[in-house]
Amino acid sequence: MRVTARLDAPLSRWLWLVKWLLVLPHAVVLAFLWVAFVVLSVVAFFAILISGRYPPAIFEFNVGVLRWSWRVGYYAYGALGTDRYPPFTLREVPDYPATLEIAYPEHLSRGLVLVKWWLLALPHYLVIAFFMGGGTYVAYQSGTWTTQTDPDGVWSIAGGLIGLLAFFAAIALLFTGRYPRGVFDLLLGMHRWVLRVAAYAGLMTDAYPPFRLDMGGSEPGALAVTDGATAPTGPQVSSTPPEPPQHREWTAGRIVTVVIGSVLLVGGIGTAAGGTALLVADQAGRDAEGFLGTPTRQFTSSGYALVFDPVELRDDAGTVGLGSVLGDLRVLVAGQDPDGVFVGIGPAADVDRYLGAVEWERLVDITDEGRAVQQRIPGAEPATPPAQQPFWAASAAGPGEQQLVWRAADGRWSVVVMNADATRPVIADLSAAVTAPALRWVWIGLFIGAGLALLVGALLIAVAVPRRVTR
C-alpha cells in the first residue's frame, strides 16, 4: 500500500471556513458509494472464501472509494492540506496532492477472511477510536470503523485527535498563513494508520497493519510522503503496484448502476428483517383469542376519570372497512374500588362534553422508561355515573376484571376509565390488544417487496460489474 500527500502551499487563510459547504456534493456521493463498498465487500468475502481471490473489478471499485474518500478528507477537515477541489472519480489522479495505491493481491487466505475484519483488526479499532474520538469516522476520511458500525456516519463531524489537530492547523492558517509542518506530519501518520486498517478490514490485503504512525518522510516498500518539490531521500521502490487482471473500465453508468443495486440490496435486507419481525409477532405474539396486546400495567388518576389521548381513525380509501384492517380492540381493566370499575370508548367530542366540568386526568404519553405522563384537568365531581351515558360505542362496568371489545370504526375516539360509582381516585390495572387481521398481508407484502428488491439489486450489480477482457 502506498499513500502520498503533498502540502499544497500556499493555502488560503479563509477557504477552510466554507469547505464544509463545498464538500457536501462529495459527502452525498460518498454516502452512496460506501453503501456499494459494503455490499461489494460482502461479495468479495464469499469470493475469497471460495476461490482465494479478490474479484479484480470489485477490488478496483473499492480501492477507488478509499482513494476518493482520502482525497476529500485531505481537502476538507481531515487535513486541510490542499485548496484544490477533489475530482469526482474513482480513478487515480497522479497530479492531485493526495494519492492512494493498493497493490492487487494475487492470492488471499481463505481462513483469514473469516476473522481479520473483526477479531484481528479489533486492536486497531481501539487505536482509531482514540484518533477519531468515540470511535466514529466520517466516510470521506476512509474510516472503516464508521462504515461497518454506523452507515450514517458520513454525516458525522470529524472529531478526536485528528479533528483537533486539523482545527489547530486551521487556526494557524487563519493568523499566520502557514501550515505547521509538525501538525501536518502527525496528521498524515494517523491517516496512514486508518487507511491501512481500512484496506485490511476491507479484505484487500492479508498484511497485518503495523502499529506505527510513519509521520512524514517515506517508508520503503510500503508508503511514501512527499512535500512539494522536495524529493524523499533514502531507498525507493517503484510507486506502481502490481496491476490486477484487465477488465472493462468502471464507467459512470456502471458506478451508478452498482450503487442503485447496492441500495436495493440493503433496502431489501432491511425490508425482509421488518417482515420477519412482523411475521414473528403475527404468529407467536397472539394470545389464545388471537389478540396482539400490551402487558398489563397500573394507571392512577387523582381525579374522577382517566382519559387516554383521543385516537383518530379515518377510512379515506372507503373500499376496505377499518374493522377489516385493524380488527377488534380489547381493553381489560381491573379496578381497586369495591363498587367496581367502568371502561368505555366513545366519540371524543361526547367524552369532552361529559367531562367538561369534571376533574380528570389525560394520559398524554408513556416515556421510554415506562413512566406515564398525565395532564390534570381541574373541575368538580360528575353529575351522573358513566354507565348512564348513552354515547358509548362500547363499555363494560362491574367488580373484578372487565373486558371491553370494540370493532374499529371511522371517527375520533377516546378510552375512559372511571370507578363505576364515579368516585375518586381511579386506580386500575389495564392492558390493550387488537386482532389486526391485516397484519398478515403487511408482512407478506414486505417479503414480496424484499424479494423483488434483492433480485433486482443482485441483477443490477451482476450486470454492472465489469467483466474480464478476453483476448
Unreliable spans: 134-158, 217-239
Number of domains: 2
* Number of DSSP E strands: 16
Beta-strand content: 15-25%
Order of helices and strands: EHHHEHHHHHEEHEEEEHEEHEEEEEEH
Transmembrane segments: 20-50, 117-140, 155-175, 255-281, 441-465
Keywords: Membrane, Transmembrane, Transmembrane helix
Region (Disordered): 224-247
Pfam family, one: DUF4389
Structural notes for this entry:
With 471 residues, this protein is an alpha+beta fold. It folds into two domains: 2-245, no CATH class; 291-314 and 321-434, Jelly Rolls, CATH 2.60.120. Helices cover 39% and strands 18% of the residues. It is built from twelve helices and 16 strands. It has helices spanning 19-22, 24-51, 56-75, 116-120, 122-132, 144-149, 160-176, 181-201, 252-284, 322-326, 348-354, 439-464; strands spanning 2-5, 98-101, 218-219, 223-224, 292-293, 297-301, 306-308, 311-313, 328-335, 341-347, 360-366, 372-377, 394-398, 401-407, 411-419, 426-434. The strands form four sheets. Strands 7, 8, 10, 11, 12, 13 and 15 form a seven-stranded mixed β-sheet that branches. Strands 5, 6, 9, 14 and 16 form a five-stranded antiparallel β-sheet that branches. The chain has a two-stranded antiparallel sheet with strand order 1-2. The longest helix is centred in the middle third of the chain and has 33 residues, at 252-284. The radius of gyration is 32 Å and the shape is elongated. The chain crosses the membrane at residues 20-50, 117-140, 155-175, 255-281, 441-465. It holds the Pfam family DUF4389. InterPro entries: DUF4389 (IPR025498). Keywords: Membrane, Transmembrane, Transmembrane helix.
